Fold:
Amino acid sequence: MDQAADGEPGEPRESAWTDETEQLLRDWRNRAHASQTGYYTMADRFRRWNYWLGIPVVIGSSIVGTTIFASLKDDVGVPARVAFGSISILAAVLASLQTFLRFAESASIHGASAAWRDIESILALPRELLGDPKVCVDSVRKEMNKVAQKSPELNERLWASLAKRFGVNEPAPTA
Structure:
């Protein structure tokens, strides 16, 4: 059994946790939920953009590869050659954009940023099992800062929408 603050053995120790401390953690949880939702939203968006750009690249490159054989024949007219050349240029531009914009990598980074959920486990425990609130809050704050430093920024419009939805009264998280 715990010892009381005045040293009496056998009496439970009074928790140093306050309603304000728990409210701070709830506010942080709401912020984390909003950020998590934003990162999952952006990860899905980047995956879709990767497909919308990647599929035309594959199709265009296939057409170009096929047309090379067709253009070896003398009976291919100028309009067909112009069309095939345009498709070739478009495929090269789209492939370059896909490489430069790194949608698949961005989707992965946003997905990883959304995966943090330590506050939930803290709030689920009774106060008596939580230990020193200052140590706990400092630990959560350090972990949130670490995650924020590694995470990409969410765009302001998305963050404003999520902050309103989750009751967050802070500016958008920045890296």
